[in-house]
Design a protein that fits this description.
Length: 55
């Protein structure tokens, strides 16, 4: 979550887990459609999923 709070997009997302999950799903779909590599987002996504799964 520390990395998330450093991102400019955090101002657009309230920070509730449900909103972050929804944002992640949409970005994942866009990434698949565009086939643009997103290594930084992939790392953030994995860290977020690990954090959510621990809770």
């Amino acid at each position: 979550m520390k990395i998330y709070h450093r991102m400019p997009i955090r101002r657009l997302v309230d920070g509730f887990v449900g909103e972050i999950v929804a944002l992640s799903r949409v970005l994942h779909l866009w990434k698949e459609r565009s086939r643009v590599p997103t290594p930084n987002w992939d790392v953030l996504e994995k860290r977020f999923e690990a954090k959510v799964n621990r809770s």
